Amino acid sequence: MPDLELENLAYENGFKAVCGVDEAGRGPLCGPVCAAAVILPEGVQLDGVNDSKKLSEKKREALFDVIKEKALAYSVAFATVEEIEEYNILEATFLAMNRAIEGLNIKADYALVDGNRVPRNIQIPCETVVKGDAKSLSIAAASILAKVSRDRLLLEYDKQYPEYNFAKHKGYGTKEHIEAIKKYGPCPIHRASFLTKIK
To answer: Which domain holds residue 20?
Structure first.
C-alpha cells in the first residue's frame, strides 16, 4: 500500500510543499489526457487510497471527496485532444502535469511524479517514481483525482455522442468502441492519430 515515506524524505531534505503527480487517459482513443497534483498534510491517514486502477469506480468516487477534503492543496488539469494531436501523447501528458502543478493554491517546491520520465519544462525539483501510485500516498491520491475527473468528463461526452457508449468504456479501445467507430466514423473528440490502425 502507498505510504508517506518518499514525501517524508523530501521534507527531511528541506522541502516545504511536496506534491504527488499522476495522469489518467494516456491510452484511450478519445478525449483529453488528465493530470492531478496533490499536496497532503504530513502524517495524514487516507484509508483505502491506492493506485486508482486497483479500485472500483464506486470506491474511487468515494475517495475523491475524502482526498479533496484532507489535502492541503490539489489541482486537476487537462491537455486537449488538439494538443495531443499537435504534440503527441507524452508531451501532452507533460503539459497537463505542469498545468496541475502550477494550478495548486499552495506553491509546491518538490514533485513526486508517477513513471520514469521527468515532465519537460517542470519548474521545480522533481523525482520520478516507477509504479508511484502503489508507493507514494500523494501520487496515489493524484491518480484517483485524475481518473475520476476524466471519467466524469467522459460521462458528459456520452450525452453528446451516445452512439459510442463512452460512459461504459471511458474511451478505451474496447471491441465495442472500435465497432462503433467503424460504424459511425470518429467524432470530434476522437484522437485521429490513435485511430490509424482501425479500418
So the answer is: 5-151
